[in-house]
Amino acid sequence: MKPGFVLMLIWAGACAAPCVHASAPPAPQAGAPAATAEQLATAETDHIHLQEFDARQRFAANHPNELHRLYGSEAAGKGQWGDAAVQFRRAARYADKYSQHRLSLMYWHGLGVRKDPALAYAWADLAAERLYPQFVLIREKMWQEMDEADRARALREGGALFDEYADAVAKPRFERAVARARANMTGSRAGAANGQLMVFATRDGDLQGSNFIDLKPMYAGWRLDPKRYWAVEDVVWQQGGNVEVGPLDTLIDQGRP
């Protein structure tokens, strides 16, 4: 992989392993408590500090899939599973495979929605549409654990979901949203900026402990070009990662030496 493309992946956001459990984990050791449904459907990235959440929210402003994915993760981290389902579903409408994956786990475990293995599989099938390995694995595991009645219903339910959430309709929806964002940007026609685009934020009203957030990466050309945007996602997911929202090294803590 070229060094420049590695940089683009960094700009895409933090790559963190998602929660990929589809059902019960391996049998626990004697005396160890079994994992709860919440633990099986929660990702480490659901728990972030307020400061990081604010930076990621700004960074995702022009991408509704990333913004609603961020809100969904925040709600899941707080145990607000009903809100998480709403937000992940909104992100899923913009071809967000990670959000479709999260919905599949929520239906499988009955968190924020009625437990429904058939719908869980239908969402897992959507998440696996691009054949990202970890999502294909989960889909196949779900299929193996369902009975024949649920398998038949999953195939029926899946058709309606694909009509609304599959890439054929969801990617154009994303493209229209990004085009609107580009049209509303100030500066160059490409949405680029020279130098740094800084946002100043105080920490609890303390100017000495304030932060500067460089938002220039959010206007990077590849993020505003849907074909290149999806190409970055494909590379990250094919290598087993997770596209998360948020600049990594652009948050400069002015309080540190």
UniProtKB/TrEMBL annotation:
Alphabetically sorted, this entry's keywords are: Signal
Which PROSITE patterns does the record match to this protein? PROKAR_LIPOPROTEIN
Q: Does the keyword Signal apply?
A: yes
Q: Which InterPro entries match?
A: Sel1-like, TPR-like_helical_dom_sf
Specify whether Phosphoprotein is a keyword of the entry.
Answer: no
Signal peptide span: 1-22
Fetch the Pfam families from UniProt: Sel1
Q: What is this protein called?
A: SEL1-like repeat protein
What is the source species?
Answer: Lysobacter gummosus
